[in-house]
Each structure stands twice: as C-alpha cells, then as structure tokens.
Amino acid sequence: MASFPSSLLRSLKIPALRPRHCRPARRGYFAKAAVVCLVIAGAAGIYFYTAGKKGPVVEDEMFHQVAVGDFVHDVVEKGEVESARNVDVMSVVRGYRDLNNFEILWVIEEGKMVEPGDVLVRLDSSALEEEAKLQRLDLSGSVAGLSKAQNELEAAQIAMTEYVDGLFVQEKKELEAEIKFAEETLRRAEEYYAYSSRLAAKGFVTSLQLEGDKFAVDKAKIELENAKLKLSVLIEQTKHKKIKELESAIGVAKADLESAKERNSIEQKRLDFFLEQIKNCTITAPASGQVVYANERGNREASEFIVEPGTSVRERQTIIRLPDYSAMQVHVLINESRVAMVDAGMKATITLDAFDGLKLAGTVTKVNEYPEPISRFGAQIKRYAAVVTIDGTPRQIKPGLTANVAIHVDSKDDVLMVPVQSVMPYGDEYYCMIRKSAEDIEPRKVDLGPSNNRFVVVNSGLEAGEYVSMSPRRLLDSVEMPELPPEQINPKRKEGGERKGPPGRSPGKPSPEKSPGEANQSGGETQLVDRVLKNFDANNDGVLSADELAANGGEKYTSADQDGDGQVQRHELIAATNSEEALEEDPVRIAEDQSPQAVGGAQ
C-alpha cells in the first residue's frame, strides 16, 4: 500500500462533527471533504505513476570495474599427495579353494618408523592351520602308499631273479635228469628185448613174453621223447612266458611306485604350501621407513579399503606403503570436460589444506587415456587420473595430504577482463550492461576471448575503468536491445543444426527467463535441471552451493548464478537452459577450474 507524506495529512484538518440541525456548517464540511479526496486521489495517481514507470534500477545492482590484468586459465582439481617411489608392502598369502580373503588381526600404528624385519601386519591364519592339519593326514596316507609300492617293486624284481637264476635252472636240471633216466631205461629195455629175442629163437621164451619186452622198449622211447619235449618247451616257451610275466609285474610295480612318489610329493607340497601361507600371514618390513596405510576410497562398488583390524585382504593387495619422501607427487582426477586441455609437461601450482600459504611447483607427468570406474550409486561423471610431480618436496610434506592442484593451461598478460556473470548471451552475440551514470545503462556488444570459471577476456567492446553489471539479465527490461533475426530468438537447436524461437513470440525480442512455477517449461529442460539437482545437491535443499558443486565436479554450473550470491537456485538453472543452447557450450558459462586474482572491483 502506498504511503503519503505525513506533512500533507497534517495540513488537512477535518472539522469536528456538529449537531444535525446546523445545516450551513454541514455544507462546508462536505465541501472540505471533497477537496481532501481530490488531493489524496491526485497524490496517489502521481505516486503510482512514478512508481510504475520503468527505468534502470541501479541502486540494488552490483557493478564491476573493468580493469587490465594477467589472465590465468587453470584447471583446478583436488588430489592426494603420495610418494612417487613407494615400497609397497602387500599380502602374499595365496587363496585356496574358498579361502581368498584373510582378515587383519593386528596392524602396526600408522606413522611409526620401522626397520627391516619388523612385524607390520598379522593376518588371520586359523583356516590355513586347519587345512594344514588335514593335509598332514593325507600326507601320512601317501607315505604308506609309497612304502607299499616300493616293496611290491622289490618283490617283483626278486621274483625275476628267483626264476631266471633258480626255478628255471632247477626245472631244467630235473628235465635233463628225467631224460637221462629215460635214456637208461630205453637202453636196458632194448638189451632185454634183444636177449628175449635170442631166447625166443631157441624156444626158451614164448611169443607173448617177447611182445611184452617189445612194449617195454616202445614205452621207454616214448618216455625219453616226452622228457626231451618238456625240456624243449621249458627252454623255448615256458621260460620266455614266465620272464614276460615277471617283467610285467616289475613294470606295474615301478608305475605304482612312481605314482606313489608323485602323490606323496603333491601332498608334501600342499603341506609346505599351507605352512608357507601361515608364515606369510605375518608380514614384516622389507625396508626401513615410515608406515603409511594404503587406504583406498575408489569409485567402484565395494572398493573402499581401510586398513584396520577386521578388514579383509585379498592376495597381492597393498596394505602398507613405506614412502620415499624425497620424491612426492599428487594423484588427481580430472573432469572429462577439462581433460582434453591437460597434457603431460604442463606446469602446475599445488597448495595444501594443511599448510596455509604454502605453494609448491609441480609438473604433469601422466594423464590416463581411459576414465576411472564409476559407481552406479554416485554421480555419473567420468574422471581421468593424472599424476603431478612436486618439484623440490619440502620435508613437512607427507603422503595422504589433500592438495589443490592448479594446472596452468593458458595465460595472457595485460588483458582486459570481466567476471563471467557480467556477460550475457544475446542471440549469437554477447553483451554487457555498462553503467554510464546513476540513471543511464547502456547495452554493449563485446568480443570475448578465453575464459575460466571467474573471468573472461574481452578482446573488444569495453575500456578499462568502465563499470559492468554483475547481473545483466535483470536490466533487460530497462534498456533497448537491438532486434534479433527470427532464427536467433530464444535459440534452440533443430535437428539440422538450425535455431528456432518458441511459438507465439514476436520477432526481435529475446525470450524472457522463466520462473520456477511457469507451466510452459519443456520436459527436456526440467528433466535436465532435476538431473543436475539430483547429482549435485548433497543436502537436498534445492540449492547448489559452491562446495557441493566443487565436491562433485559440477563447477561448470556456477555460471548459472545470475544474482552473484554464490548459490545456484533452481530457477537460475531453468533460466540458463531456456536462454542458452547448453551450459557447457558457452565459454562465458564454463566454470573451468581456476579462481584467478580478481581485477578491478565491485561498486
């Protein structure tokens, strides 16, 4: 409600009420009341006309004085100090079957100085000890099998010697004796048959007796031939057959012995394996140095590793590092939007959160070609690992310190610069709002050069000493802007690369910023804004602070802060998406990384 000067109200004296029967006084009262109403109406009209008249509002505006300075374009990222030459102490306990991870039972205090042989970590070896007990039983069984196989081989070899040198010779001699006996029997039968034949010729022996003697001769011949055949079979067949059987038995016994030896060797190696792993559960220092825990807080799921009792350790996982303090470096992760600017060999300035005022010189020595793994639960922002070596490491620098690394991408001396929020895109050009006087604001087109997250170089359009508005969009309705061609009104990309304005807008006027509750927001714009808030708004208050954006790599969205209060509101994000093609495509809105020394001043 409009307020009026108190002196005006005091000058209007309203007469007191008089009795009803005083008619002349009553007429004077109404006349004065009419005059008062006219005066009030006129004053209100003048007030509202003056208040509603548009004009430049500079009282609440913040202006920046254009000045010449040194432009520095740095890519700034947080990193962690580490040693370039570490002696990594890792777990060498190998997994077996289901035993792949071993818990830490005890670990030496971090920061303690150690000498070679000092115990650093003890891992839980109870499961390995149980396996070693079972393995000893298996080894005992293999030893018994080995002894049995050795005895069977020796028995087979003895059987061979027994047959060749004993049983065969004995059987051969028996057959030779049998042949001798058969020969002697045949000789006697033949002599007796000859004698019987002579007696039969004289009639002293009957023919029947002579036939009996003849049969005895034939029998003796058959027995002799049979004995000779047995000897021949023994020498030519039975001997070879028996030797083959014995050789086969020896071969089987040898194979069984080799198998038993291999089995015993395997069981012994398994036992030695478990005993070695039990020994490896006690980890000692390979060199002297100061203990630094190899804690990991990566982006991958379940990748966090904190060195403390109860933590599971896998094979070949580094637990402790013994750093070389004479060679230190910083491990940083660079946002994918800026990694193309960084190359090996670039110089960098390193500051540490632990030491105010300490600045260290560094050099980029490595930039990975592939991004680091991304957790599906975190912000889907790809980052590339880089290594920045520290030149001349001071003695107080230790691994694990948080470092701010400013990689010097570009620099220009003695150039005209203005804050990025003081530049406004208008069509295909850029404008600044120049304060000519307290009531005069002039829009001026500017030609821009390189920019960082705070300042942009102005090639032409401004002069040192002039004042530019820090929130130029607020002054759009107070100045006359040049008409734009239809294709540049509220630019939105067509599929063929053209630009088109929204339907229903008159040519020559830019599309105004949309309010948070405006119903005609496009689905793509609101989805983009909602996605940005979801990824970077850590406390879910609907506002993006500088700390939230810096912590998650969203520095590029700081350019949407139109009122310069250090926070990005939802309507500011919506305005940025409505008035610009894409935030990251505009050099004025790229919050690259550096906060260079300010030039000029705010008025």
UniProtKB/TrEMBL annotation:
Q: Where in the cell is it found?
A: Cell envelope
UniProt protein name:
Macrolide transporter subunit MacA
Region: Disordered, residue numbers:
478-534, 578-603
For whether the record's keyword set contains rRNA processing, the answer is: no
UniProt GO molecular function: calcium ion binding
Which keywords does this Swiss-Prot/TrEMBL entry list?
Coiled coil, Membrane, Transmembrane, Transmembrane helix
Membrane spanning residue stretches: 29-49
- The EF-hand domain sits at 529-550
* Ranges of Basic and acidic residues composition bias in the record: 490-501
Q: What residue stretches are annotated with the YknX-like beta-barrel domain?
A: 328-407
What is this organism's lineage? Answer: Bacteria, Pseudomonadati, Planctomycetota, Planctomycetia, Pirellulales
Q: Which domain of life is it from?
A: Bacteria
KW Magnesium (keyword) present? no
